[in-house]
Batch of 2 targets.
Target 1
Amino acid sequence: MKTAFAIGCHPDDIEFMMAGTLLRLKGVGYEIHVMNVANGCMGTNTKGREEIVAIRREEALASAALAGAVHHESLCNDLEVFYSHDLLTRLASIVREVRPEIILTHGPYDYMEDHVNTGRLAVTAAFCRGMTNYPCNPPRPAIDGSVTVYHAMPHGMKDMLNRPVTPELFVDVTAEMPMKRRMLECHRSQKEWLDVSQGMDAYVSEMERRMKIFGELSGRFDYAEGWIRHNAAGFCREDDNPLALTEK
């Protein structure tokens, strides 16, 4: 079976930015996988670390179950998502296990360093998928086949230097919005935190507002997710664009 792998940074990033597209891919026959590289341990000012990590893991599991996605465990704490050999060996092993034809992840232009580093790790883990001498942890053999990598849009469609970021393609997620909303609502611990930390009052409404903006930018859809395709060299053929299949 074809597989698609959404590699987000924190629990709820996939739901905000990628879940609609992931659901569309499931609808055209892909097995879908999800992973939050960081465990969300900083997403509170009222709970202890172990408590919030357990809560956010359960929220992520509930969201994955709603989508019918295979859930993969986090690799590190928040603010410990560095472009390091240790994290890369572990993520590369999971990529080889999943064998994705599509990877959805953050972009190198994101406003948050944890997001940028997650995207960099995902890209390199995909790039070295077929390198027999790369030491994965745990060890797994190199895999054949192409993978197309797509980068999601950052919050506010601006990079860390406040410059605009414009999608190059859009995926219609209008029909997926009810499920995308339910998946995001699983992350109940983040409602108050996002309001306090980022001024994101009513985080589900904020997600819907963003998807509405992307739909308007597409010129075709009521709600959409925006994407930029990674350079194909070393990953897939230049004309590979499997997200186009979601529109058929």
Target 2
Amino acid sequence: MSTDPQTETLKVMIADDDDDFRAVVVAALRAEGHSTVEACDGQQLVEALERFRGGAPGLRPDVLITDVKMPKLSGFGVLESLRSARWNLAVVVVTALSHESIDVVARRLGAAEVLHKPFEPGALLAAVRNARGYALA
């Protein structure tokens, strides 16, 4: 039996140092029935993933959303850490930076999707659904 990607419930982990922005993302995801785990920076996200590594399969997130510019560990640092640790996860990168090189670097590091702030909740939900089938290589 196949799952409809439009209605599939996902576990999404979000890393962004802007509390208000993170709250909006969480609200949009939860309104669609997805469960969320939050991190205030990239380092906290990577540490949380390490705790999930040995846990039950249901604890592992389906998709990560990470901001590019964060204290302690940037979104690019998150992508590099995931690749080094051989995590096979879909990643959506969000950024307020508008330079084309951001997209190029994010995709080169394995991001499935790149969204530029501000964006509509529908664009976020579509990016999460699209990323779901994509795994960090």
